[in-house]
Structures are given as C-alpha cells and as structure tokens.
TrEMBL record:
Protein name per its UniProtKB record: indole-3-glycerol-phosphate synthase
Species of origin: Cenarchaeum symbiosum (strain A)
Keyword hit for Cytoplasm: no
Gene Ontology BP term (one): L-tryptophan biosynthetic process
Gene3D superfamilies: Aldolase class I (3.20.20.70)
UniProt cross-references to CDD domains, sorted A to Z: IGPS
Annotated GO MF terms: indole-3-glycerol-phosphate synthase activity; phosphoribosylanthranilate isomerase activity
Entry keyword set: Amino-acid biosynthesis, Aromatic amino acid biosynthesis, Decarboxylase, Lyase, Tryptophan biosynthesis
EC number of this enzyme: 4.1.1.48
Pfam families reported in the protein's UniProt record: IGPS
Stretches assigned to the Indole-3-glycerol phosphate synthase domain: 31-245
This protein's pathway: Amino-acid biosynthesis; L-tryptophan biosynthesis; L-tryptophan from chorismate: step 4/5
Name of the top EC class for this enzyme: lyase
C-alpha cells in the first residue's frame, strides 16, 4: 500500500497537482490548554481502506461544522488519488476558517512543500516509513524546507523504533498512526504500546481508528496529547455533535 501511495504522489506531482499560485497566510500553531488534549478533525471524503466515506460533501460546510463543534485544528487531504482530496479543497477551507490546518498527503517532493506554503498550511504531514523505506530521501531537509517556508511538521510513525528516530528530529509534533500502512489494520493498542513507560518530550498525537469519546479517554490515559480523527466523524450524520462529544473527553 505504501508503495502505491508513493507512486500516486509522484503521479500527482508530475500532473502538476501541486503547482499552486497563491499566498495564503500560514504560521498558526495548535493552542494547548493546561490539562486538555487537542482534537484534530480530518476532512476526508474517501480513503484507500473505506472507499467513499462522504461522496459529494462540501469540504467548507464540513469544516465549518467541525469548528463549531470545537475542533482545535483541521487536517485536509490534498491527495486526489484514492483519497479524493485536492489542494483546491484545502484552499477553500483555508479561506473559510482561522484554526490551524494540516496539509495531509504523502509528501515525497519539494513541490508539495512549496504547495503547503502557498496554500497557507500551518503543518504538513511527513511519514517516517516513506523515508526509512527509501521512497524519499533526507527527511531532515524536508522538515527544514518546511520551517524555512513557515510550515511545521507532523511526523507520523507506527513502530517504537520509528518513534525513537522521530524524537531525534526537528519535527514539531509526532503522530502515532494506529493504522498499519501496509496491511491497513487498525489497533489503538499501537499508541498504548509505544507510549508505555516512556517519558517523551514531544507532543504526541494518536491517529486513526478513533471512533468515540471512550476511545479518546483511553488514548489520553496512555499519554497522547492530541487525537486525529477522520472516518469516525466523517461517517456519521451529525458532524458538529460528534466533534463536541469527542471534545468533552479531551
Ligand atoms: O485512511 C486510510 O484508509 C489510509 C490508508 C492508507 C494510508 C493512509 C490512510 N489514511 C490517512 C490517515 O492518516 C488517516 O486519514 C487519519 O489518520 C484519520 O484516520 P481515521 O480516523 O481512521 O479515518
């Protein structure tokens, strides 16, 4: 799956998907409140594992409901292939909300980092296994390129070894993905196992497979400082209400 996702990103780069002219303002950071974790909600119309989640939905309307529900930040998919995301969706949402936004994509090329800046993204996603697997090179340079362009990095890991390596980078946030990107299996125990007995200096976001306030309470207990939730919100009827309920457990 990872190989397919990387190929898709290269196809999108070659097709000019990330050639964006624009100068939206970025540079926001997530506001952490004492004793409370942060909820990042994802505008996700489709995914490789689920297919369409909310076909034909309006990204701006979804984003507005999420913000009304209290989301601390939004993640917006920009990858067209398999995710049905697009930089245009990101730009529309960017113009309509003022919370921090993450450009969610499989980033393998400098053109995508430049696009993050042009779109006014506050954070971009980098995936440790993309670099460890040799699908892209020199992750530290990507993090630096982002910083030079005013874009922070959410660095995603899935194993304890990746987590260790991520802690020795300049990434601004570390995300533990509960989804295995090769098998697509989800296990919330991934976050618990990686954080067990660890005193981490980084803020850790638990990502994927979170469906309820009870899941959030469980992962907060494990030491996560934030949560990234897509399908668990996008698949239901009441986006604002689901976000509000999840926020109550943060
Ligand atoms: O969501 C997928 O099926 C997927 C498959 C392969 C690579 C990445 C994938 N998702 C990207 C994400 O990081 C998730 O959208 C995000 O963590 C939210 O996950 P969820 O709450 O489970 O929708």
């Amino acid at each position: 799956m990872l190989e397919t996702l990387v190929k898709n990103s290269r196809t999108s780069v070659d097709a000019g998907v990330y050639e964006i002219r624009g100068a939206a303002r970025g540079g926001r950071s997530i506001k952490w409140k004492e004793g409370r974790a942060a909820l990042i909600t994802e505008v996700k119309l489709a995914s490789p594992s689920a297919g369409w989640i909310r076909e034909g939905a309006d990204p701006e309307e979804i984003a507005a409901s999420m913000v009304r529900g209290g989301a601390d930040a939004l993640s917006v998919l920009t990858q067209p292939l398999l995710f049905h995301g697009s930089p245009e969706y990101f730009a529309r949402v960017r113009r309509s909300v003022d919370v921090p936004m993450i450009m969610k994509d499989i980033i393998v090329d400098e053109a995508q980092v430049a696009a993050a800046e042009a779109l006014g993204a506050d954070y971009m996603l980098l995936i440790q296994s993309v670099f460890d697997g040799g699908y892209a090179h020199n992750m530290d340079e990507f993090i630096e390129m982002g910083h030079n362009r005013g874009v922070r990095t959410l660095l995603e890991v899935h194993t304890a070894a990746e987590f260790e390596r991520a802690q020795n980078t300049e990434a601004d946030l570390i995300g533990i993905n509960n989804r295995n990107l090769d098998t697509l299996e989800i296990d919330l125990g991934t976050t618990e196992e990686i954080l067990a007995g660890r005193n981490t200096r980084s803020r850790v976001i638990s990502e994927s497979g979170i469906k309820s306030a009870a899941d959030i309470a469980r992962l907060k207990k494990a030491g996560a400082a934030g949560f990234l939730v897509g399908s668990g919100i996008m698949g239901g009827r009441d986006i604002e209400g689901t976000v509000r309920e999840m926020i109550s457990a943060c």
